Amino acid sequence: MKIKRIAIVGAGTSGWLAANHLGCELSADAEIEITVIESKDVPTIGVGEGTVPYIMKGLKRFGISEAELLNSCDATFKQGVKFVNWLDPIKHGENYYYHSFDDPYPNGFNVTPYWNSYEGSKSFDDIGVQARISELGLSPKMKNSGEYEGELSYAYHFNAAKFANLLASNAQKRFKVKHQFATIEGIKRCNEGNISHLITADGDELAFDFYIDCSGFSAVLIGKGLAVPFESKAKELLVDTALVQPMPLKSDEDINPYTTATAHKAGWIWDIPLTTRRGTGFVYSSKYMSESEALALYAEYLGVNEKDLSPKKLPMAVGYRKEFWCKNCVPLGLAQGFLEPLEATSILLSDFSAELLAKNFPRDSTNIETIAPYFNKVVTYVWERTVDFIKLHYCLSDRTDSDFWLDNQDETFLSAELKERLQKFKLCPPQQSDFFSRFDLFNEKNFLYVLYGMKFETQKTILSDKEIEMSRTILKNNDRLVEQADQHLLKHKDWLMGLKSAMEKSKS
């Protein structure tokens, strides 16, 4: 039977990302109808306000204007993550490092072995230019840069609710995606075990051919309906709670072109700058910290009286589904799984999975048994390696100020793959051949920044005179680029306000 009617249950970021990916891929087939079903009774979580550069690929395919994205979603540029105090403050003092988006291989040449063997006392951030340019508060784009183009790699921070609205508008106008309101409470299954109908709170039954579960943590279809088990990663990743509090942005306050992730004794705090406010969240493990202590530390970080703090509390079930495609249903977003938003993993995994589904969407129900095992294999690999990358930030820390950090350093809870990689990286720096799958969303370039930002030690190597000379030339050139950067790049806030002013003038 040809699959003609597709239901996407849930209208948050993951739901509308799926609608755009599927709409873009399938819109040439006039028989296919995509419907997003939104509940008025279920609010979206909306904490995913940071992205990685991968997001651009989809936005360009969808035909979304970057200027419209920036202006309508309170968006700012993100050039990476600044990790503060992830190393022992007593041993290292106040410390930070950047996981930047720029290429640590200038001109295709890897200067890491030179840095490691000859200048390891210098910060790894000094190899490239982006960390230092981020510290200067500069934009990654010039005033006349084209859409989705810049002098440096970048992603975005945005208001998640407004971003979902932008995706919704685009999907409906460009790809003719339908939208209806209904609260889905259950499913009906046919004799083969597939979902045949959605059951609404009003008792109505809605029939489709294929179902995408974007219903958030409730996982109405994949969890409650199809009973696909949840694979907990609570032993590997210890944080389980987030307190979320938006903060007003003062008119004279700078807008950082990066996310800040500040460690505390039982987790970390995210601080994401938008053009209208700061999105902040206090992530912690309830095993190692009480809620009252978390509130006190959160208020101290924000510089407010604890009595004036009224954060939303989000319990976090960390892990993912044991099956990502079951019968005629695929979960995306929080229904698929959840990891703390340390490296903007939520939107990344939703975007990747939605694109993979769209590119491999079965045109006939008989194709599902062929495609589903491949999809499950790929997405399982992606989740497992992403768990490894998040764990990397914790297991490398030398903080000893709490049992939380000591337990995170216990190698018992590292995957075999991560253990093997870390052993190899003690002998030589990460290289592309260590990440042989194209489904490693976090590869050697990402590992380099975290490993050496956290002072991981790799065996030194002897380099040729030519390699040494080339490395020194590249690093000196980078120093010059940083010194001259403010002659070419505007302050981040000035660039954003300039765009806003230009767009207001064009409308008048």
From TrEMBL:
The lineage of its organism: Bacteria, Pseudomonadati, Pseudomonadota, Gammaproteobacteria, Alteromonadales. Signal peptide: none annotated. This is Tryptophan halogenase. It holds the Pfam family Trp_halogenase. It comes from the Bacteria. It comes from Colwellia marinimaniae.
